[in-house]
Amino acid sequence: MRHLKRTAKLGRTGQHRNAMLANLVCSLIKHKRVTTSLAKAKAARSVAEKMVTLGKSGTIHDRRLAAARLHQEDVVKILFNEIAPAQKERRGGYTRIVRLNQRQGDASQKAILEWVDLGMVTEAPAAETPAKETKPVEAKEAKAEATK
After folding, report:
1. Angle between helices 14-31 and 38-57 (to 10 degrees)
2. 3-state SS, residue 121
3. Which of 2, 93, 135, 143 lies at 20 to 30 Å from 122 by C-alpha?
């Protein structure tokens, strides 16, 4: 019987599941938003929230625990320097799951996993350069004259 066994197996072995969830949380930390299946989003939410809780205390021991779980030092720096200070006033519930439509191939429910109070980082548009104005009629005429 599976009484009180809450781990979502996700069709994987334990090591594969832990590696997949660590990669999913790393992508969430880097990109601030991840689109995945609903089951994976629910499983990754608990890992992400535990990492933010480690980041809020900010001790060297907590950094080492986060690095041992996530396996990426650059992500740990982002977590401890940007995400955790932004979530300092919250007591929990750092992530949000937004349900999407079903996936085309296997009809799995898709979802977006994102941070709650973290302002979304949008890339600034490149400096607009004035477009070269060319008249298509003149270009065709010049091409026709060149072939004569």
Report:
1. 70
2. coil
3. 93
